[in-house]
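Aim 2 progress update. The chain analyzed this quarter is reproduced below.
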Amino acid sequence: MCYEPSMNGAARIIAIALLWASGALADAPAASEASRGDAGGSGAKTEAPWCTEDVEALSEGMCHYVPDGVDPPDTLVIFLHGVIKVGTTWQYAQEQAMKRMAKANGFEVLMPRGRIGAGSKRFFDHYTWPNASAAQTDLEKEVIQEWMDAKALLEARNGRAFAKVFVMGFSAGAYYSASLLLRGRLPVQGYGIFAGGGAPKNVERWARGTHPKVPAYVGWGEKDRARKDPVRLAKALRAMKWKHRAVGRRKVGHSMTDAQVREAVTFLRKAN
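Predicted C-alpha cells:
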C-alpha cells in the first residue's frame, strides 16, 4: 500500500523552497541565484555538493554528523528532507538544523538525499521521496539499502550497533516517514513526523496487520496549511491503538522546531 500527500495540503506547501529562519526548518520563497551553481558566469548550471562543508560526506548523496567530544551516541537518526530543487542548496539549511539538534539531543545523524523523479511530474526536477506505488516499486529498495549500508558503516566505525534508530521526516520527508511507519517497512525503533504525514483512506483496516508497530511522534503547527494531514495521521494511529504522541502548536507554521525534535527524541527513547 502506498501513500501520496493530498494536492490540497502538502503539494501546495512542498512547492516552496526551504531556508534557515528563527531556529527552525521552515518554508520560504525562492533561493538566490548564488545558490544555484552558475559555473563561471557562463550560464551553465553545476550542482553544488549535497553535503555542506561542516558535515561529513559518506558518499555523494549521504551526509553524516556526530557531535564532537563525546563517546559515539547510542542513537542514530535518519533524517528525510523536504523537497529540494535540483541546482539549489536548499538542503544546507536542513543539514545545519540537524547538526544543531544532534548536539542538543545527543544523537548521530544520517542525512540522505532523495531521488529525482520519485515525486509527481510537477516536481520532476526536485529531490524527494518515493510516496507513490510506482516510485516505491522502482526506487524504494535502492533508497532503503543506501540508508542501511551507511548505518552499517557507522556501526563498524563505532565498534558497536546502535541501540536505537529513529527516522525523522520533515514536509515531503514526513509523508514518506508516515508511509514507512504504516507499512512497517523498516527495522527501526521509532519515527518523528513533522509538518506532514497523512494517512490514506481506510488505513485503519489495512495497517492493522503491519508489524512491528513502532512508536511515532507526530508534530505540526496550527498555522500550517497542511495541518489536516498530520491530524488525520494522529487520528488513525489513535484508532489503531498505535503507541504515539501527537502535538499541534498554535504559533508554529510549516516547520520543524528544536522543541519538537527534543520532545520527539524524549518520547521515542522512553517508548522503547
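Residues 133-158 form the longest helix (26 residues). The first strand starts at residue 17 and ends at 21. These observations will guide the mutagenesis experiments scheduled for the next reporting period.
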